[in-house]
Design goal:
Shape: globular
Largest sheet: none
Helix content: 55-70%
Strand content: under 5%
Distance between the termini: 27 Å
Mean pLDDT: 91
């Protein structure tokens, strides 16, 4: 939606969006594969889901993508109103980038990737994703990191968390290394 210049769903084309961004998307997918140590079968899941090919973008999809943070308006048809679509897209982008960072870090920890090296790659991947989400600069690796730090990290590091101490230590290490990388950006 951010690339259409409008917030009307009728103006959205996934193929149109992807057409000029195949190189960035390839770099994103290669980065994910490298940092998370995914093999070909794991990476094939992205293609099987169908998000990277033409599909209809509906207000209901955006509502789910943004976790319903905007609420469900009455009447329901208001979901397609440009002001509601814009809000769902912006909230969804923030949410998705934060969850994406959590998934990258979790996968890297599970793959036992060394934190310092992975942090540089994760920051690069997050930069590509941020640019794909919105080229205006509204989203950035730094803002996604800060949102992740307050939305995800406390639940892991809280004294009553069920996360094992080794997991807590790994998340703390990634937090520290990402801070170093992103603070110098």
């Amino acid at each position: 939606m951010n690339f259409t210049g409008t917030w009307k769903l009728a103006d959205v084309s996934v193929d149109g969006f992807l057409a000029g961004r195949r190189q960035e998307l390839g770099r994103l997918m290669d980065g994910i594969q490298e940092v998370c140590r995914f093999g070909a079968p794991g990476m094939a899941i992205a293609d099987e889901l169908g998000y990277l090919r033409e599909h209809e973008v509906t207000p209901e999809f955006l509502l789910l993508w943004s976790a319903g943070l905007t609420g469900v308006p009455e009447p329901l048809e208001e979901l397609a109103e440009p002001r509601v679509v814009r809000r769902m897209c912006r909230m969804g982008a923030d949410l998705q980038l934060t969850q994406f960072l959590q998934a990258l870090i979790t996968a890297a920890i599970c793959a036992e990737v060394e934190e310092r090296a992975a942090a540089v790659h994760i920051a690069e991947i997050l930069g590509i994703a941020s640019e794909l989400v919105d080229p205006s600069g509204r989203n950035s690796p730094e803002s996604a990191f800060r949102m992740w730090r307050v939305a995800q990290l406390p639940g892991i590091l809280h004294p009553y968390s069920e996360a094992p101490e080794s997991g807590r230590a790994a998340f703390r290490a990634y937090d520290l290394e990402l801070e170093k990388v992103l603070a110098s950006a």
